[in-house]
Design brief:
The chain is built from 16 helices and eight strands. The protein is α+β, with helices and mostly antiparallel strands. It binds iron/sulfur cluster.
Length: 374
């Protein structure tokens, strides 16, 4: 038996005994695989489980999701992060209903025409729901294949990427790809995790990395993308009745569709960020959003949040007026809708990001009387 055959059959035997029992693995529909795979991107299984259950209860079918309002979709997603995934699900559901009559295509190439479905998700849907012998290569699968077959180099490009795909296709072609794909995922999440525990691994007998002492060296680390260092000001604008202004980000932007206190960018990757943050901002706010003479202040509160490519620091500005409507410029490139709401009601009534949750916590500590003039 050659290494590929041995790898596929040993993994499958191991999986049938040891595979994780997860709600999206029990004869799933393509819709269930799609929802679970999008939730699992960048998010741990244990975090996804309650979200998945709530989602399926509220949107049990692609038709139910397609007919839902995006604000409800985002609200149900709130807390999972990377909100583009929720938008992709909603847009994709509409497309599947409109173009495919509500029935998922079973061809991975056709699935990839749906926005937000890449090679991995297409492979997962084809293998897990349609029992096709297609690979589904995620980070765990990459690590197991790279170590077992000894594939080195940057697996995101060039020859190493090609070799990875060729190997994964050969493994899948042995049949039962749903089992072998999930086996690699489970093995990569257990004994073949970042720190390998080879003594417990069913593949140890023929593993290249173990044999050559390369378990720490493989897979070759990918170059980390540089992070943008961005500073923003965020405005807690209150009316005398205590209600705050919140605004909804335009759908095409980062965190699109979510609600927040309005923000403006102060600087990005600046070597002078500290002094730029101290510059007066009432003119910036006037141009961007509102003109409230003599009522601008800044707090000394800064909130930091790290996205995949951005390290963001948000400084909280405050302003107060009898009623803000006459002061607002609503023709805004960042926001498409505005509302007034009491601070305590925001988390339960609006879809908001984790960053906004941090900002609300900070805002609750502010004594409006004690903030400094801008
Ligand atoms: S033997 Fe070790 S390195 Fe090889 S696949 Fe198993 S856990 Fe990973």
């Amino acid at each position: 038996m050659n290494d590929t055959e041995w790898f596929a059959s040993t993994l499958r035997d191991w999986f049938l005994q040891n595979g994780r029992k997860l709600p999206w693995r029990d004869q799933p529909s393509p819709y269930e695989v799609w929802v679970s795979e999008l939730m699992l991107q960048q998010t741990q299984v244990v975090t996804v489980l309650p979200y998945y259950a709530r989602w399926l209860e509220r949107f049990p079918s692609v038709q139910a999701l397609a007919s839902a309002d995006i604000s409800e979709v985002l609200q149900l997603w709130a807390g999972l992060g990377y909100y583009r995934r929720a938008r992709f699900l909603h847009e994709g559901a509409k497309l599947i209903v409109d173009r495919y009559g509500g029935t998922f295509p079973d061809d991975p190439e056709e699935l990839k025409k749906i926005r937000g479905i890449g090679s991995y998700t297409a492979g997962a849907i084809a293998a897990f729901a349609f029992h096709k012998d297609t690979p589904a290569i995620d980070g765990n699968v990459e690590r197991v294949i790279s170590r077992f077959f000894g594939i080195d180099g940057d697996l995101s490009r060039g020859e190493p990427l090609k070799l990875l795909h060729q190997t994964a296709h050969k493994v899948a072609a042995h049949g039962h790809a749903a089992d072998t794909n999930q086996a690699m995922m489970d093995l990569g999440a257990s004994c073949c995790a970042k720190i390998a525990r080879c003594a417990a691994c069913p593949l140890a007998e023929r593993c290249f990395a173990l044999k050559h002492g390369l378990t720490e060296a493989l897979p070759t680390p990918k170059a980390a993308p540089a992070k943008t260092d961005e500073y923003r000001a965020c405005l807690l604008l209150r009316q005398d009745d205590g209600r705050c202004l919140i605004a909804r980000r335009r759908s095409e932007l980062l965190l699109g569709g979510l609600w927040e206190f309005p923000m403006i960018t102060i600087c990005k990757n600046s070597t002078n960020a500290a002094s730029e943050c101290r510059l007066p901002r009432h003119l910036l706010w006037k141009n961007a959003l509102a003109d409230i003479p003599n009522h601008w202040n800044t707090s000394n509160i800064q909130i930091t949040h790290v996205f995949t490519h951005i390290k963001m620091t948000v400084i909280l500005d405050t302003a107060q007026c009898a009623t803000f409507e006459p002061h607002l410029n609503l023709q805004n490139a960042t926001y498409d809708s505005f509302n007034s709401v009491s601070l305590k009601d925001i988390p339960s009534q609006y879809a908001i990001s984790t960053l906004m949750k941090k900002i609300i916590k900070a805002a609750q500590r502010i004594d409006m009387q004690k903030t400094l003039p801008l």
